[in-house]
Amino acid sequence: MTNSWVNWAGDQSCAPAAIAEPNSLGDVAALLAQAETDGHTVRVAGSGHSFTDTVLTDGTLMRLNKLDKILEVDSASGLVRVEAGITLNAASNALHPFGLAFPNLGDIDVQSVAGATATATHGTGSKLQNLSAALQSVQLMLADGSTVELNEQTDPDGWRAARVNVGALGVVTAVTLQMVPSFVLEGIERPIPVEEILDDLDTHVDGNEHFEFYMFAHSPLAMTKRNNTVDIPEQPRGKAVDWFSDVLTSNYAFDALCRLTRRRPSLIPLVQRGAAHAGSYRRQVERSYKVFASPRLFRFTEMEYAIPRAHSADAIREIKDVAKHFETAMPIEVRWVAPDDAFLSPAGGRDTCYIAVHQYQGMNYEPYFRACERVFDRYNGRPHWGKRHFQTAETLSQRYPDWERFAEVRRRFDPKGRFTNAYIERVLGPVH
């Protein structure tokens, strides 16, 4: 195996001293012992879908893709024990025959369970929390090879820290998830003027189980998506229809247009207006995880912030205006999430609106993202831990009421700073 690692977007890479793919808990413990002997720090990689440098290390990089088994299923309670490296998609497909599903998912599902929850990945739904809220128990291996089982009974603070841990506490090796009975969603996509949505935002957000939209800086239209549970059988579409809408139109055609605007930025307004109009009416009735997620085949980088829901409309308008002044063909994505109580959850303790901005591969993202971040800062925004931002521990600590409680758990579990790197030092500070 070559000693290099690159993330999905292709814009974060490192050359660790060792890359290892453990097959068992014993392997993980042996790797940690070797890292101690060699004086290496340790980072753990999931599917590489973070846009930050959270995984990068010149020490030991551990990949858990071989720890991908479902260990226990209790269909009656909905509690499921899985190894940390299983992907959301693999878990969804394997658990459907047991009549179980994730209550919510984001718009991609190729991330590992441990990676998605460690970074507080989320879907949309004003009454639904981010994915990490489903973690009822977390098995964590510490630097000395010992394991702790963290849940509300055994270690409440450890559990609230481990659910969104950014890889800073140890190696998550298995988790117990609270799933829900399998369900069928009706997904409806249609264009609606942005201002029409914002003028009656609560009706859209609260009137649907899952509501989100994409908008473009240079178009008055938003491409809305509303997913609601229906009590009818799934109606799978033909493979050709799926390929045309999910692959050809949403990926290959848009990718070609983005490449064109990279060469000729003056075409961005025209491309955006055309793309917004192309996002016409579409209906899908399918098992939940097939409606939530769709393929992402072209590369980009992303920033996403969680702001208090009360500021949704103002912030959305400001970000749309900011985007007009920068060269990007990519859309702005807006979603809503219910509060939870993980110490480092961006939605912790408050009803939340998530706003995401994107930049196509090979185009300069930093001026645009910094301008957007200035808007998010005014609304006490908290960055998605897996997406680009320019914050530091100093700027973030004031935005999280339980910041010091997380730091105390970190000192308890990783006193020597075995699980750190430059990103962790920047955003969480040193262990001591």
Model description:
This protein starts with a strand and ends with a helix. It is built from 14 helices and 20 strands. The chain folds into 2 domains: 70-181, Uridine Diphospho-n-acetylenolpyruvylglucosamine Reductase, domain 3, CATH 3.30.465.10; 184-383, 3-Layer(aba) Sandwich (Vanillyl-alcohol Oxidase, Chain A, domain 3). Helices cover 31% and strands 25% of the residues. The protein is an alpha+beta fold and 432 residues long. The chain is globular and about 60 Å long. β14 and β15 (221-230) form a beta hairpin. Strands 16-13-15-14-18-19-17-20 form an 8-stranded antiparallel β-sheet, with helices on both faces. Strands 6-7-11-9-10 form a 5-stranded antiparallel β-sheet. Strands 3-5-4 form a 3-stranded parallel β-sheet, with helices on one face.
Structure keywords:
432 residues; alpha+beta; Uridine Diphospho-n-acetylenolpyruvylglucosamine Reductase, domain 3; Vanillyl-alcohol Oxidase, Chain A, domain 3; 2 domains; 14 helices; 31% helix
